[in-house]
Amino acid sequence: MREALFIKKNAQKWNEYQYLQTEDPDQMADRFITLLDDLSYSKTFYPHSKVTKWINSLAVSIYQTIYQNKKQRFSRLLTFWQYELPLMFRKHHRMLLYTFLIFLAFCSMAVLSSMKDDEFVKGVLGEQYVSMTEENIEKGDPFGVYRDESRFSMFVRIAFNNIKVGFLIVASGIFFGIGTMLFFFQNCMMLGSFQYMFFAKGLGWESVLVIWVHGTLEISGMIIEACAGFMLAKSILFPGTFSRWHSFKKGVKDAMKICVSLIPITIVAAFLESYITYLSSNAYDKTTNFSLSTGVSLSILIFSFLFIVWYFILYPIRLEKRMQKNPEWAAKINT
Question: How far apart are the C-alpha atoms of 140 and 282, rounded to whole Å?
Answer without folding.
Answer: 11
